[in-house]
Write a structure and sequence with these properties.
Helix content is 74%, strand content 2%. With 247 residues, the chain is an all-alpha fold. The chain has a two-stranded parallel sheet.
């Protein structure tokens, strides 16, 4: 009997679709990485600015310890920004590949999720760059840990990696509420189950913040965890308002 369902796809169709979306994601990443390379001097200035207070106060400078260090930092910076700027493309590809036969009523949910994803990414980047990173640098290089008779010599690559990884992981972790919202909208997760598991979720969020945060001080880790806990319950509240995640 002939299959009359136009949405049903064969294994080969899924493989071709996966290959197509991988090519789109890789192309978007490469384009964004090339753009980041073109504006590398402007981008790297955003990171070295974080250490200006140390240069003025402690006389600390960023030093390169090898000939290829500047080249490696440039590649890492371009790759990191390429990933961050192309992230919306990856999210769209993942959602459309997992839910190829998505009902039209869910299209608005995905679009709204992507818009909120952008604002959450910007919010996370703002908190990390303007609040947490400056505090962690000042805290870890304070006289409490480094006596006056000890000089400060900061490695260029390690220092830039510190800021880059802080930004990247903050942006990624701040996408978690959007994932919860979409899963509740699709009926995969239930609100009551998330509320009952909230204690474990809080422990998991704090643990995740401690793992992904490059800083070892608990204040920076809690500064990442606290907004995520608030966003966790805010996602449940928004799902209740829109009637998602019912039992």
């Amino acid at each position: 009997m002939e299959n009359t369902n136009p949405r049903e796809m064969t294994v080969l169709d899924h493989i071709n679709e996966l290959r197509r979306r991988l090519l789109v994601s890789i192309s978007a990443f490469l384009v964004c990485a090339v753009v980041a390379l073109v504006f590398y001097r402007n981008l790297i200035g955003l990171f070295t600015t974080q250490f200006e207070s140390l240069q003025n106060g402690l006389g600390a400078k960023l030093f390169a310890n090898s000939i290829a260090e500047g080249f490696l930092v440039q590649l890492k910076t371009a790759g990191m920004f390429g990933l961050i700027f192309s992230l919306p493309v990856h999210v769209v590809n993942i959602v459309q590949f997992i839910f190829p036969a998505m009902d039209a009523k869910y299209h608005k949910v995905v679009v709204a999720g992507l818009v909120c994803s952008f604002f959450l990414a910007a919010f996370g980047a703002y908190i990390a760059y303007f609040r947490i990173i400056p505090f962690s640098i000042q805290f870890l290089t304070s006289k409490v840990f480094i006596p006056n008779q000890v000089g400060v010599l900061l490695n260029f690559q390690q220092s830039i990696d510190y800021v880059l990884s802080f930004l990247l992981w903050t942006i990624i972790t701040f996408q978690a509420p959007i994932v919860l919202e979409i899963l509740m909208a699709f009926g995969v997760l239930k609100r009551k189950a998330l509320i009952h598991a909230s204690r474990y979720a809080i422990v998991g969020i704090v643990t995740l913040a401690a793992i992904v945060t490059p800083s070892v001080d608990p204040v920076s880790q809690l500064s990442i965890a606290a907004p995520l806990v608030v966003l966790y319950f805010l996602a449940i509240l928004m799902a209740k308002i829109f009637g998602w995640g019912k039992d």
